[in-house]
TrEMBL record:
CDD domains the record matches: WHTH_GntR
Highest taxon of the lineage: Bacteria
Coiled-coil ranges (or none): none
Pfam families cross-referenced by the UniProt entry: FCD, GntR
Protein name as it appears in the record: FCD domain-containing protein
Region (Disordered): 1-29
PANTHER family membership: TRANSCRIPTIONAL REGULATOR, GNTR FAMILY, UXU OPERON TRANSCRIPTIONAL REGULATOR
Length: 264
């Protein structure tokens, strides 16, 4: 009799080592969109709702085939789509399978920047769209930064605004974009940072920086320092207004140096 607790403990330990399985549902796809997209959309929806928690294991391919009424190749295509979005990961071995991944903002931002970079080469989007979105986002971010930034954040902003130019980048453009990224980060709002970073990444790669006169970059440097001063003093309205004026001043510069499609 004394050995029963030990056996129960062993069973519990073994169970703890078994990955959690995702909740199951009997679902069927409709012949409206590609079947793999419908399967991926349903699984994505469950992940976003938290029904499928990070670390939980999805049903096997054969089980998903039965649940959705689709072929195994369709299930595999759906899983590949989710993996490309960093929503699931595949592990090998006895305890392997497809598992819900914990979102990593950095990867998502990088992917979004890459997709945006492709999109701006099409006739549907150009430099004007990017600058308009930026004009809505960054002045509001400067206001929030002035309201929320602590001493360490202000110090980081000032370091970005006053950073010396790299000999490999005489224009200082990379440093200038880093300052704008710091403004977004200074809001303490991750969503704002994620919204603005892809735009900055596209501008880094699609502007002809060498065609800009050095004195123009000097003016940019001075404006960044002035914005930082407003933020340091908690002058929210002034920071917002100056950031808006700054971006409007840059509009013609960016448009002239844009390496977009032939239609730009």
């Amino acid at each position: 009799m004394s050995s029963n607790p030990d056996r129960r403990g062993t069973a519990t330990d073994a169970a703890d080592e078994t990955p959690r399985s995702a909740p199951r549902a009997n679902l069927r796809v409709q012949k409206v969109r590609p079947a793999y997209r419908q399967v991926a959309d349903e699984l994505r929806s469950q992940i976003m709702r938290g029904t499928l928690e990070p670390g939980s294991r999805l049903p096997s391919e054969s089980e998903l085939t039965g649940m959705f009424g689709v072929s195994r190749s369709t299930v595999r295509e759906a899983l590949r789509a989710l993996a490309s979005q960093h929503l699931i990961e595949t592990r090998r071995g006895v305890q392997g399978g497809s598992f819900v991944a914990a979102p990593e903002p950095t990867k998502l931002v990088d992917d979004l920047g890459g997709m945006l970079g492709v999109l701006v080469t099409t006739p549907q989007m150009g430099i004007g769209d990017l600058l308009e979105a930026r004009l809505l986002l960054e002045p509001a971010a400067a206001r929030l930064a002035a309201q929320r930034a602590d001493a360490d954040t202000v110090e980081a902003l000032r370091a970005a605004a006053e950073a010396p130019r790299d000999s490999r980048d005489p224009s200082g453009f990379v440093t200038h974009m880093d300052f704008h990224t710091m403004i977004l980060m200074a809001t303490g709002n991750l969503m704002l940072t994620m919204m603005g970073q892809p735009v900055s990444d596209v501008l880094r790669t699609r502007l002809d920086r060498a065609s800009v006169a050095p004195e123009q970059w000097d003016q940019v440097d001075s404006c960044h320092i002035a914005i930082t001063d407003h933020i340091a003093r908690g002058e929210a309205a002034e920071a917002e207004s100056l950031m808006r004026d700054h971006l409007l001043d840059l509009k013609d510069l960016y448009t002239e140096t844009w390496r977009g499609s032939t239609q730009d």
